[in-house]
Amino acid sequence: MTTAVATPRATIGSSDASRKRRRRTSLRAWLYAAPATAVLILLFVIPLGLAVWMSLHDWPLLGDAPTLNFPANYAEIPDERLFTAAVGFTVKYTAIIAVVLLTLSLGLALLIQESKRRGTGVLRTVFFLPVVTGLTTAALLFLGLLSPSAGPVDDILAWFGISVDFLGDPTWALISTVVMMTWRFAGFYMIILLAGLQAIPTELYEAAAIDGANKWRALRSVTIPLLRSTLALCTVLIVTGGLVAFEQFYVLTRGGPDNSTVTMVMTIFRQAFSQFNLGMAAAMSVVVLLGLVLLNMLQLRLMRDKDEVA
Amino acid sequence: MTMVHRRLLSGVVGAGILALALAGCSGGDAAPTADDGTATPETTAEAEPAEPVTLTMWTRSVTAAQSEALVAAFNDEHDGEITVELTVVPFQEYLQKVSAAASGDNLPDLLAANVIDGPNYAELGLWTDLTDRIAGLDYADALAPAHIAAATTDGVTYAVPHVLDASALYYNKVLFEQAGLDPESPPTTLAEVAEDAAAIAALGNGIGGLYLPGDCGGCLAFTVFPSIWAAGGTVMNEDGTEATLDSPEAAEVLGIYNQMWNDGSMIPESRNENGATQNAAFEAGTAGFALLGSKALGTIAENDKLEIGVAPIPGLDGGSSTFVGGDVIGISSSSEYADAAWTFLEWTLDEQVQLDIYASAGFMPVRTDLAENEFAAQDPRVMLFNTLVEDGQTPYSARFFQTFNDPQGPFLALVREAVFGSGPDSLPASNTLVTESLQDS
User: What ipTM goes with this model?
Assistant: First the structure.
């Protein structure tokens, strides 16, 4: 991605010296970009190419050598009931988590930004703390808390006469996971949004106040528009993260109850490591990847700052 | 952005990375033939004090206690000549690790496996042929028959029993007494289990009849199959390619579970029990019955609310059976030290080793001729587990795990629909899906 910038536009005269200088600059730019490019090629482009290659084959994890079977792997995807159902569920989960996380972390960021009291720093740390927990660890923690036979939450609610089947009811299993993910990630997006908020010049708020804008109006007309690119970044991160969701459901719900919380990546994992059908898993990965790329292009276009359009 | 990249990498392109590992080595035959296997037992290590050999060995984490004890004692005894280096792999990752190693020709010399994966490993040629070596043992017939069957394909045996487990009906004698039942005469038919469970559930006060691991396919196979077998039914055809869970026996067995669920004698949390906490309710003294493996006997502590009774899992009209689980172990087909590896395997099956290391620690011996040993004699419940093995079964299918253990597999859905859903009328339709999964290539 960085390498494309390397060639400066040829506007100056075309003397030999300047051409030579240009060539040298270009070479140096390539050299600077080389380590990153090498890592990118090794860890991203080659595996991606291999995944595409595998998706064209019947590729068992054990046993016989792979055989070309294109387009069988792709053609069979629509028949994978689990996968098609998972697409719907993953999209639903992503929409919910995006709204919940964005609203909550923006709220937290605004609260911290506004507060002049002592102890705000402590709060900021407290909100951020769950971020340093690994996602699997966080999921295991909630599994322990919410498990009816081992966790305390059930017993505590029982004192109030409330009984909730946190992981055994499809709706509650989804809510529990969203709560866990919000706890885990709200602090992270809060920090990003806080940085965005702090970059907004205070003069603008002063000017808005002089024009008679109340807080709500200032939020709508100053904060949100100027936070647009930060919000766009957060949205892209959350949506992409949501669509490739795996650990949280794998650990917390294992896709249950009755396959009601199976995500796309879980079906890919199952296809590869439980069904040992790597070709099919690769084909599903490629489909998911294409979907993600398209969606991200669309999102970035929609959310691009108007001045940025050049 | 790094996070997006990381998740993209792990989630979407992960398979690609694996391909990188596979690509380097998938050109040749993934399952080299076993030329070491032809060595006769007589030519083993005895001849010359050869070079010291180090054998690598992999086992699943669930057998860590037994594997570690065996390896430590063996290494002590064979000081320097043969050393076994044990790697205990988390059980959830075992198949993945073995698969990757098999494609890369990196299998350890000694490769253990969940017994239900035995047919899969054997058919894929991961193990070397042990038929003749086993035949040379005086006690060949006494090796847990279900394990030997699971490790045998087309008349060739590839592994020996390593760790034995068996399922049984656990009951709480304290609750039996409270409910006015005789703690010394546990139920002998599944219908009686349901009756007793109802009587215990009627005690109220947070006490339930039966705790079933209702969201764990592997556990359900382990605990429900024996009743079907005891009733004379089957769960699959002989070569494991067709499910027979639409049989009258299966319908009646699952019908009784369905009735227990409907009349409230099954503990409600059963529906969501994924196996991780399946001992909890019984251990807390709030469940009259639980269907558990032999290991629970050693791990669940008795207290004033719990006195553990163990009975065989009954069928419909008397009779009983058990699911013989645990692990088998073989010599990988790529091992260069098959003779030394067999020395280890033979040693683990030795009477003294089985008694000193297994029986004395409360583990089940893997030989039926050692079932009635002095240690088991001290506890009739241990003795019961040991003697159950002889008539127990291990289902045989090369696609067992994908079909029965997978949380998204068709078997779990079958049981859940039959027990917690519309009842056993759903079995014919569900059974078709199980068969499809067994035949999927």
Answer: 0.78
